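Let us practice reading a record.
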Amino acid sequence: MKKKMNISIIVAVIFSAVCVLGFVKNFEFCINALGKAAVLSVSTVIPAGFDLESNNQTEDKDNTDTAVSQPQSDAEESSSPVSAGQKSEPADSKNQTDGGDFTETPEDIRKLIENYTSKADKDKKDGAISEQTYKTSGVTQSYGNVRIKNVNDTQINIKKLLSEKADFTLSDKDEPSVLIFHTHTTERYQILDRDFYATGYTSRSEDPKQNVVRVGDAVCEQLEKAGVKVIHDTNIYDKKYNGAYNRSRAQIEKYLKKYPSIQIVLDIHRDAIELNNGTKIKPVAEIKGKKCAQIMIISGCQEKGNGITGFSDWRYNLVFAVQLQNKMESLFPGLTRPLYFCPRKYNMDMTHCSLLIEIGSDANTLEEAVYSGKCLGVSLAGLIKDYTEK
């Protein structure tokens, strides 16, 4: 750790000298680059209590979201939704997404928006919300549609991972093959699309019509339309934040015992990204002319010295993660943030196709997140179809 720190300091000093001498004329570029070298960007899936030095995971120590301090990204990032060039989708997504109801605001959400709008004039601004489209910032490697932020020592080959077969077979279409649940069930979204969050806003709610459960409903709806049997577990596991993963794990074990046909297990969350000045970041993309919340797939890893145990089969999960991101990006370009390949487990050891998925942040609207849930459902159904028809 000290060696890495010394190298970073040396690089920063040399780069500063270059800027001062005039080799780099754009002073703002120098400052931004040095800022990126100095900032450690941590996803909120890292619970409070995780020691980044020792990599010893101590689960959920408080009842609040872990704020992420994240710098403004490089020139390839955008502070507004992606360009119109990303609106088109390949033909194999059209049957399920061309219907008017795919992009239309669901009736229950439309009513929520109307209700909140009628009271919005009383809201007082607490902090700013800024839109951002994540593309290549933080990416350590990419191939085709797949972009990965690898914070492990383990090196990976995306091309090879894409060529491998995920450990998934659909033996009985009448039995459930997918389980969707939410360890942090009460994670909530904004209702109104505006450039600020209001005083008194709470990022947690037990109302399944306003939290990640509603997003899970959207995923399930698309899977069911495609003929994929799915179970949506809507139990609340984070009434007490500490121990939520242990509680959700116990329930997953029951489902897997009752339905051995389940192979794909998705723990759907929402992220929280906040700058040091209190500005909340909402990751967005534009799909079929409609704004949605960007999705980040989390895939874990066990390696020597990282403190993770009982997850020696992690590579199976990574194969599935890479192929799911590839499918999402092929059908809905710009939908995903870089895949986060990290030294975590988060119950991903339960099956070879278990992943944690972050849909948007607490600055995204429920409508944006639900729309992304639809896109995820269509993509997952498409990937399953690819495997069952081989």
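A brief commentary: The first helix runs from residue 2 to 21.
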